Amino acid sequence: PQRIYYLSLEFYMGRTLQNTMVNLGLQNACDEAIYQLGLDLEELEEIEEDAGLGNGGLGRLAACFLDSMATLGLAAYGYGIRYEFGIFNQKIVDGWQVEEADDWLRYGNPWEKARPEYMLPVHFYGRVDHTPEGVKWIDTQVVLAMPYDTPVPGYKNNTVNTMRLWSAKAPNDFNLQEFNVGDYIEAVLDRNLAENISRVLYPNDNFFEGKELRLKQEYFVVAATLQDIIRRFKSSKFGCRDPVRTCFETFPDKVAIQLNDTHPALSIPELMRILVDVEKVDWDKAWEITKRTCAYTNHTVLPEALERWPVSMFEKLLPRHLEIIYALNQMHLDRVAALYPGDIDRLRRMSVIEEGDCKRINMAHLCVIGSHAVNGVARIHSDIVKNSVFKDFYELEPEKFQNKTNGITPRRWLLLCNPGLADVIAEKIGEDFITDLSQLKKLLDFINNEAFIRDVAKVKQENKLKFAAYLEEQYKVKINPSSMFDVQVKRIHEYKRQLLNCLHAITLYNRIRSDPSKSFVPRTIMIGGKAAPGYHMAKMIIKLITSIGEVINNDPYVGDRLKVIFLENYRVSLAEKVIPAADLSQQISTAGTEASGTGNMKFMVNGALTIGTMDGANVEMAEEAGEENLFIFGMRVEDVEALDRQGYNAREYYERLPELRQAIDQINSGFFSPRDPGCFRDVVNMLMYHDRFKVFADYEAYIKCQGQVDQLFMDPREWTKKVIRNIACSGKFSSDRTIMEYAREIWGVEPSATKIPPPNLPRD
């Protein structure tokens, strides 16, 4: 069969025990067996460390995709890096984020199997020799890539795929082959230099930091993986007819490589290098094979996130790849020049090499020219990709560009994390929805069924009580379980506008203070997420949230009508607890900035209502459920563009809206930081004078929309009916649907629903 290779620098897997039991259909049996040993399975599950080998959406998407690919019976492999330290653990100290190393392998990892027999060499540095026999890359430094395999079980179909993660090992002669003066001890200690490659995950979400170690990580995973892919292609009896199997004609029919963002973009020049330099394939033929094999998924339109590597760094680290990129770029620009004679500016815009004070390689441009398919991750994002980010490329090859709206696996994000809701649903429509989420549509028949309305509300209340107990036990915070659980959990970033949420919390607080006897809908506002360690503004936002909480939560006038809680160390295993308990999901990025979002989908399928902008997949969620069943507010992409043209003036909103002015003045004057009144002046200064994400422009519409949320929450029956509608319309957002589209429209394979016979039965 055609093999699918999903290349990603991140796989945000979370815990594996419960997921394995669910997919193998063993959960009840294990539960019972453990219970009979006098143990509690849930207590046992809490001991497992998260595999936190990702930052957020991009890494978690890769994990959901692995689950769906196995469930759909695809011959798919996930390839990445076995980081010794994953995403840092977040501690909150005095209201500030403090990072500590995530030593997740300290007690070993029972799910992985080291495969030293498949260890492979990866080359760095050196120089290029052009000889009559061809090009040679020589005098390189070698690092060994040791594979570790983790099984990926499909849902009750006896399929088990593999996630192979590479770990860096120094060769035994490392730094000893140097005609060295015999400092043997120093040489052995220097092995760490090589092994640092797989030491730690870079903790940036949607931000590019051009560090040499990161480029080494990117090439390390690519070089090891491509050797593995080609070994498997050559040894496959279907690979080719000729005895030595040097024929690569059939390669794209047998191999599909999906690039998860530009991080594995070096696959393109590396495959060219192997085909041309090693396998002696003709250049043009090699280019055709490479393009037919690779496909690229774009994950962001934020310019600061795009990878642009200095040419000087490449020259040193990967000299042959630089030559290949130059040659590919020349070929590409020749074609553009022929089609648009005299359009020099177009050549500049479309080049893979950016000229300037520091020449850089634009990895996104490399991916676009080297792939047969380029996709965005939600319809609105794919449109932006075509009409702005890669506009010139779209004009050149419109057939290359596609949309593949993201999804989430219903196994982890419904069955595993919300068994109560899954049971209530299965009672009404059977269990088939677990592998065909579109069947949730059948719930529309029960929208007025009193018993069903009651059951759905009851499950939500139980989840809220359970989460409230967890919060009290872990963090000693008491919350009101009958309050609205208003949740925004995601990485902390200016574009995600946690600050808008803060302004609403302050506004609510000021309204309660000014009329304490009035009746208010009680809320518990929970905000969670990690800030990149070097992102100053994101860290200030966390400090602001904790400071607001400090004031509000200790004000006797407020009582338990309003609480602001910062959820410490938000990660996959915490998401599995908080999402089923949420009433309101906040998805409030500036329109045109959140490529898709996937948390939005998890909340929808778990019975929370969404307050959000028309951004990312929110647009399609509103389309599926009906816009009147979400709380949509604020500027659309067109409005944002119009405001950019006329110039955004934050002060205008500050002058015009008294509640906004009061909130900003309180933040600025030190009302929330009495010990350090100037604490938040950077935040206020940003909001007033250089806010790229236009928080104030959506403030009025947001506050008004939150008023509508309050109104509906006071009518529990109508609220729950809207919840049921949302759940019933969430079927599109299964990663099974997403992967079916990738398989058919990019990889050219048909998913199979057939269950293969279990290993204990003889095969036909």
TrEMBL record:
Single GO MF annotation: glycogen phosphorylase activity
Needed cofactors: pyridoxal 5'-phosphate
A GO term from the CC aspect: cytoplasm
Catalytic activity, as annotated: [(1->4)-alpha-D-glucosyl](n) + phosphate = [(1->4)-alpha-D-glucosyl](n-1) + alpha-D-glucose 1-phosphate
Entry keyword annotation includes Membrane: no
Modified residues annotated as N6-(pyridoxal phosphate)lysine in this record: K602
Keywords: Allosteric enzyme, Carbohydrate metabolism, Glycogen metabolism, Glycosyltransferase, Phosphoprotein, Pyridoxal phosphate, Transferase
GO biological process: glycogen catabolic process
Documented EC number(s): 2.4.1.1
Transferase listed as a keyword: yes
NCBIfam families per record: P_ylase
Protein function: Allosteric enzyme that catalyzes the rate-limiting step in glycogen catabolism, the phosphorolytic cleavage of glycogen to produce glucose-1-phosphate, and plays a central role in maintaining cellular and organismal glucose homeostasis. Glycogen phosphorylase that regulates glycogen mobilization. Phosphorylase is an important allosteric enzyme in carbohydrate metabolism. Enzymes from different sources differ in their regulatory mechanisms and in their natural substrates. However, all known phosphorylases share catalytic and structural properties.
Subunit architecture: Homodimer. Dimers associate into a tetramer to form the enzymatically active phosphorylase A.
Family designation: Belongs to the glycogen phosphorylase family.
Name this polypeptide is given: Alpha-1,4 glucan phosphorylase
Species per Swiss-Prot/TrEMBL record: Ibidorhyncha struthersii
Encoding gene per record: Pygb
